[in-house]
Amino acid sequence: MKVLVVGSGGREHALVDAILRDKGTQVYCAPGNAGISRQAECVNIKSDDISSLLRFAKSEGIDLTVVGPEQPLAAGIVDVFESRGRKIFGPRKLAARLETSKAFAKEFMKRWKIPTSDFMTFTIKQTDELRRYLEDAKYPLVLKADGLAAGKGVSIVGSRSEAEAELEKFFVKKVFGESGERIVVEEFMTGTEASVFAITDGEDYVVLPPAQDHKRVGDNDLGKNTGGMGAFAPTPFVSPGDMEKVKSQVIERVIEGTRAEGYAFRGCLYCGLMLTEEGPKVVEFNARFGDPETQAVLQLIDSSVLGLLQTAADRKIGSYKLTLNGAAAVCVIAASQGYPDHYEKGKEIIGLDDNLPGTKIFHSGSVIKEGKTLTDGGRVLGITGVDKGGEIKRASELAYSRAQKLHFDGMFFRHDIGNKAINFELKKGPNR
Ligand code: GLY
Hints:
With 432 residues, the protein is an alpha+beta fold. The protein has three domains: 2-84, Rossmann fold (3-Layer(aba) Sandwich), CATH 3.40.50; 118-187, Dna Ligase, domain 1 (2-Layer Sandwich); 192-428, 2-Layer Sandwich (D-amino Acid Aminotransferase, Chain A, domain 1), CATH 3.30.470.20. The chain has helices at 10-19, 50-60, 70-74, 77-83, 93-100, 102-111, 127-136, 160-172, 240-260, 293-297, 305-313, 392-404, 419-428, and strands spanning 2-7, 26-31, 41-42, 64-67, 88-89, 119-123, 141-145, 154-157, 182-187, 192-200, 205-207, 212-213, 216-218, 222-225, 230-233, 267-276, 279-286, 328-336, 359-363, 366-369, 372-375, 379-387, 411-412. Strand 10 and strand 11 (205-207) form a beta hairpin. It is globular and about 60 Å long. The structure holds glycine (GLY). Residues 151, 213, 228, 286, 290-291, 293 line the site of glycine.
């Protein structure tokens, strides 16, 4: 079986690693990174170069292509591959709009009665209307760029003056380009965040254990928003009752709604949730696996991850039996100084071969040059600790012990990944 994974980050490394658990599988990754090249054959094709990817899949006889990032999905890679009879895991372009247009996603949720916050949408042509709305609005508010913005298009504003400053960024300075020419203004939700992945073939689905991401750059959720500085799974904050609601009020409505509207969602539906006092509500959808949640969640799966992706692509996920191994996992991201703003690349990474049982390193941004492994991104490594006994505390200790043994100039990481779950479990006490 030959599998091509598209992408170059930690999520793709975790997917490659998990797919390789199936013996006899040959895995390619385009374009991959230094860490992935230790496990799979990296192919020098960019993840948005759809025609070259298709040519490669044909010439190499790839049996299944798995798409990691959102850009190729937005560009219609699944439509192209499927129209040429090539098997691929991911949603088509129209279904991917649940991620690629925040306004589309909110309207969809409204139509299908999926719990989410109240919202209004404004285009750049409605700047005056938006200014008037901001005069009387109740703060805090959330402003979101409609299109893809690499996780950076969301601002929480506490006052009218802050909102005006953001408006300037979106509509005047156009820092998000066309993506920010339409804004979704949302009610601010309070609660605990969680990420739930549903793998669906457009009809049936399998839900993976829930995770929690850490989007802010600093400890205690302070500082700027990032692509994600760490994750743990499973999160104890999603109760069995919450999970039932997520299934019936979110996942099943997306499956039903996208089918009814003629663009059945197939692939990984990422439900970004806020666990509010009124129950789980959707903060955002993504049309792919989350990063860095994937680097934790896939460690909890005992059954074949390749089988999961394959049965979804084959439209027979009903025949897949998910089994879990009872583990808990914590992934800590090591980032380059300056991230999420300006950072330097090309720093040598030291300590990669210094193995510690119960840990894995997933590369997010790295490259090999002249025999050395160098940093090549803002997020560089995801250090995952796995406790087979299911304790987040132990998994976190493992991840941090491994992180201490790694080094590159300017390397930093958060020190509190997993702490929320650890404190929650402690509060519940031994008789939980
Ligand atoms: N963890 C956030 C994302 O994947 O978008």
